[in-house]
Design brief:
The chain is mostly beta strands and 645 residues long. It has five domains: 5-98, no CATH class; 103-158, no CATH class; 162-182 and 424-484, Baseplate protein-like domain - beta roll fold (Phage tail proteins - horseshoe like beta roll fold, Roll); 186-248 and 327-422 and 486-548 and 617-635, no CATH class; 251-266 and 274-326 and 560-605, no CATH class. The chain has helices at 18-21, 104-114, 219-225, 401-422, 433-436, 545-548, 560-580, 585-605; strands at residues 5-10, 28-36, 42-48, 62-68, 73-86, 92-98, 143-147, 154-158, 166-169, 180-183, 190-216, 237-246, 255-263, 276-284, 290-300, 303-305, 312-314, 317-326, 328-353, 368-377, 425-431, 444-448, 456-469, 474-483, 497-498, 513-514, 518-519, 526-527, 549-555, 609-614, 622-627. The longest helix is centred in the middle third of the chain and has 22 residues, at 401-422. It is rod-shaped and about 175 Å long.
């Protein structure tokens, strides 16, 4: 054990133990360990050529690098040999190891499953063939995978704020000439996002249009014309149940009749005596009100002449036909069913701006980003088994709680793009080896230097390096941080104004509010919930009568009886004229038939009828666009470029 650096070949998965791995399996000439964010740490090491096949079958391919700090042995790196040795004929050969765990994919997948939470994950915006890709969980998180160079633990680390603390450096810790500050990229000032989802709004149900009782003289035509169950109507409607019944059953009325006969029994008679009378009468047994008029179809005065040759005696006779128009009392009911299938599209738009410090203004919107996403059909189950719309009868998505999750994901996606581009400043400096080995990509670093704007800067460590220079025997280290150039600040929830009543009068979620701000868990951006104003025909399922009726009216009940009475009057006038001109019996009969036809025509031309006009349930396609207000993204101030130098 002379040390202080040790190199030990090992099998995969062998943990570090000071008593075991503090070996010099190879003689180290020089080495460099370095790691950049999102990548695996690598070890570039030069060793004295062992003159053996380092990649030969049966040889160990993993190795531990460790260092004795004077009190304990510290593991620095554990990885697998990936680079074919170079300069194999030289005294010193170079090897490359990478700290990539064999179970990296499994670790990443298991960790990804724990990161599928709101608002940073939404399978609505992820293609089916990418749903199992663990990298999708970081697209809206502003985080990168971090793999520990020693333990090989896979974690996710924020691009601005290290989870494992901060390493502070003052001027005395840093070689003066090693400090470099670079503007590495143009920060984004705005990200405009448009997201689109589609679904087919489907719903089934019935609507009861009620019961009506109608008194009419055209009951038969009303009953015959009433919709029949099973009939398909237009625009997605069908007749589920319907009935039109005459409570007075006029169509099946029975006729009553009576007959009267009289014979004069006397043996002697005087002139003018009634010798015999014969009469008969029939009439309908109506339970309902009715209208009628009599039609004289024949009339004959009695006459006799006993002195004629031969004598004659013609008895008086008459025939009267009565025209009855019975009133029906029709009881109706109507239940219609619907089966809606309506194509719907919703688009949500917003622009997220960042409070970035003035650096440089790019022409033609070079500091703005446009993102356009087409989401899944939210009316179908995702490959995860979830039905985003929850209920296909819904006429809106983005205004639901599940829809707000999709909106929050889009905001988070825009936020992640702004945050990664907010690190416009990179600062690199050298440091002592002992400081460098304490660095990781899960930490921040602060540098205090009077030459920096504002005299200091803090940033996320995005690269670090440490090693041993074989030509000088000296150790070294360096660190690079990325600094966001915002102004700082937080966003808090602002309670909106209720649309219906005071907030504390009803439970949360009962009513919509407007003008409020909902902040994301990061507390650096918020948004106002979109108003539920779908661009459609206004139908909301399940349907009710008041929603679907465009026009409903009964026609004719006030004028039918009057018109029938007028037709009777016309008949009487015609009959009077006929008597004045002494028409024949045949003419009277024709006149009576004409008047009957006139009344029937009146009934036919002026029936009582039901007029119902409904909204189509298969309307569409419908498209609704929501323009959402989002607050400014509050970027942290990690370096003050506007500070006086």
């Amino acid at each position: 054990m002379p040390g202080p650096f040790y190199f030990a070949w090992e099998d995969e998965g062998i943990p570090f133990a000071e008593s075991v791995q503090a070996r010099e399996d190879e003689t180290i000439f020089s080495f460099t360990v370095e790691q950049s964010e999102g990548d695996f740490a690598t070890l570039h090491i030069q060793i004295i050529n062992p003159n053996i096949g380092l990649l030969s079958a049966g040889r160990k391919q993993w190795a531990w690098l460790s260092w004795y700090n004077g009190s304990e042995i510290i593991p620095l790196f554990y990885g697998r040999l990936v680079g074919i040795p170079t300069d194999i004929n030289q005294r010193i050969v170079s090897l490359v190891f990478v700290a990539r765990p064999s179970d990296f994919v499994a670790q990443k997948g298991a960790l990804a499953d724990t990161l599928k939470d709101r608002p940073y994950y939404d399978p609505v915006w992820i293609a089916d063939d990418q749903i199992e890709n663990p990298d999708t969980v970081l697209e809206a998180r502003a985080e990168l995978w971090a793999i520990d160079r020693v333990t090989h633990a896979v974690t996710a680390s924020d691009i601005l704020f290290g989870e494992d603390g901060n390493e502070s450096f003052v001027e005395d810790d840093v070689p003066r000439d090693s400090v470099q500050i670079n503007l590495t990229q143009t920060p984004l000032r705005a990200v405009s996002v448009e997201g689109k989802v589609t679904w087919t709004q489907t719903a089934q149900g019935t609507v009861n249009f009620g019961h009506y009782t109608v008194d009419t003289y055209t009951g038969k035509s009303l009953i015959n014309g009433w919709p029949k169950p099973g009939t398909s109507l237009q625009s997605g409607w069908t007749v589920v149940a319907a009935q039109a019944v005459d409570a007075w059953d006029v169509a099946n009325v029975k006729m009553f009749s009576a007959k009267y006969d009289y014979q004069n029994p006397m043996l002697t008679h005087e002139n003018g005596d009634v010798m015999s009378v014969s009469s008969s009468k029939s009439w309908p047994n109506l339970r309902s009100p009715y209208l009628y008029y009599d039609i004289i179809t024949s009339a004959q005065m009695g006459t006799m002449n006993a002195f004629a040759d031969p004598p004659y005696n013609i008895p008086a006779s008459s025939a009267v036909s009565t025209f009855y128009i019975a009133q029906s009392r029709v009881n109706t009911s109507l239940v219609l069913g619907y089966a809606a299938a309506r194509a719907r599209t919703e688009r949500i738009k917003f622009t997220l701006k960042a409070n970035v410090q003035a650096l440089i203004t790019m022409p033609d919107g070079a500091d703005a980003l446009q993102l356009s996403l087409s989401g899944a059909d939210v009316g179908n189950k995702l490959v995860t088994g979830e039905l985003p719309i929850v209920n296909n009868a819904r006429g809106a998505y983005f205004t639901t709680d599940r829809g707000l999750q999709s909106l929050e994901y889009l905001i988070s996606l825009a936020r992640a793009n702004l945050l990664i581009r907010s690190r416009a400043v990179e600062i690199t400096w050298d440091c002592k080896f002992i400081r460098a080995i304490a660095l990781s990509l899960r930490k921040n670093a602060t540098l205090a230097d009077h030459r920096l704007p504002g005299h200091s800067a803090v940033g996320k460590i995005i690269r670090y390096r440490f090693g041993l220079d074989g030509s000088t025997g000296k150790t070294n280290g360096s660190v690079t941080i990325g600094c966001a150039i915002g102004y700082g600040g937080v966003v808090v929830d602002v309670e909106g104004e209720p649309d219906y009543c005071e907030t504390d009068y009803v439970e949360a979620g009962y009513q919509m509010t407007h003008g409020g701000t909902v902040s994301l868990p990061s507390a650096d951006v918020g948004y106002s919930e979109p108003a539920q104003l779908p661009n459609d025909d206004g139908l909301k399922f399940p349907l009710s009568k008041w929603q679907v009726v465009i026009h409903e009216q009964w026609h004719g009940p006030d004028s039918q009886e009057e018109l029938i009475t007028l037709s009777f009057l016309a008949a009487k006038i015609e009959a009077d004229l006929a008597r004045d001109t002494m028409p024949s019996i045949e003419t009277q009969g024709k006149l009576a038939a004409a008047q009957s036809q006139n009344t029937e025509s009146t009934l036919k031309n002026y029936p009582i009828w039901y007029d119902l006009l409904l909204k189509p349930v298969n309307g569409g396609p419908f498209e609704t666009i929501y323009n959402v207000d989002v607050s400014q993204l509050e970027l942290p101030k990690m370096i003050d470029l506007e500070a006086a130098t």
